[in-house]
Specification:
Elements lengths: L2 E5 L14 E5 L2 E2 L5 E5 L17 E5 L2 E6 L2 E7 L6 E6 L2 E7 L2 H11 L3 E5 L3 H4 L1 E4 L2 E4 L8 E5 H8 L15 E4 L11 E4 L2 E10 L20 H8 E2 L2 E12 L1 E4 L5 E3 L2
């Protein structure tokens, strides 16, 4: 039987993840997921692809905002910047209006990342960033391109048999991890039902150099891995694939251990 093995939430794009026991899914993804993004002086989004040190910044949520944590800095509480100045933020080919979180957050993050940057917040994901793929219209937060990423424990286990040093699932930054499948079985899934929630897989997720970043240290311990080994057998049209990008057809609450039903229609 398929079931949810773990849930992962990323309040700030490319910073450390949370692993909640319960997750509320909305049209644009998990509630609170990637609603914040760090940008450079030109408003262009920053990620671990070029700044792996971002992995070492922890994020906690509280009712009125987030708390940033790092070993070198005092904790910083950042409230939702309601009514704050509007900034144009570039994420890939999209330009999105977001609210600037203020100078204190800017200085705090700049000291860690080593370059001038600012923290911004998407306060209206329902209208801020529309997406379209293969006939499907949807909304997305500051995630790369789709509301959710679904992975399986079996596919990671299969990959790890091919690596000299196994890697944890956090290298692939999923939202929902499913146990009980055969390796790579998720390639054939279309509709996933978790209680009243319905998801639809729409395309495999092409992987990048971020998979080489140790999420605990912000370093690259084994250059090129696991991407090199994954590419030896998972290279498809469009890239090296691991996991499935998914849309939220019908939202609701999911939790650890929930059974997952699927169809291949």
């Amino acid at each position: 039987m398929l079931s949810i093995a773990s849930l992962h939430l990323y309040p700030v794009k490319s910073l450390r993840s949370l692993e909640p026991e319960v997750m509320d899914l909305e049209a644009w993804g998990a509630r609170g997921d990637r609603r914040w993004v760090v940008v450079d002086a030109d408003g262009i989004f920053l990620t671990q692809r070029k700044d792996p040190i971002m992995a070492t910044v922890r994020v906690l949520q509280y009712p009125n905002g987030i708390v940033l944590q790092h070993a070198t800095q005092p904790d910083l509480r950042v409230p939702f910047p309601d009514g704050g100045p509007i900034a144009d933020v570039a994420v890939w080919k999209d330009t999105i209006s977001a609210r600037d979180a203020g100078d204190e957050a800017s200085l705090w993050l700049s000291a860690i990342i080593g370059k001038s940057c600012r923290l911004t917040y998407m306060d209206a994901p329902a209208s801020a960033r529309p997406g379209h793929h293969a006939g499907h219209d949807f909304q997305v937060s500051f995630a790369d391109g789709f509301p959710l990423l679904v992975c399986t424990t079996a596919s990671l286990q299969d990959l790890n048999t091919r690596l000299k040093v196994p890697v944890p699932m956090e290298r692939f930054r999923p939202n929902i991890v499913i146990a009980g499948a055969a390796p790579w079985e998720e390639d054939s899934w279309v509709t996933l039902r978790i209680g009243d929630v319905e998801l639809r897989n729409v395309k495999p997720c092409s992987r990048c150099v971020m998979t080489t970043v140790d999420q605990a240290t912000g370093t690259i311990p084994h250059k090129g891995e696991p991407l090199r080994s994954l590419g030896a057998f998972r290279r498809q049209e469009g890239g090296i694939m691991f996991g499935q990008n998914a849309l939220v057809v019908r939202g609701g609450r999911i939790k650890l251990g929930d059974p997952v039903q699927l169809s291949k229609d």
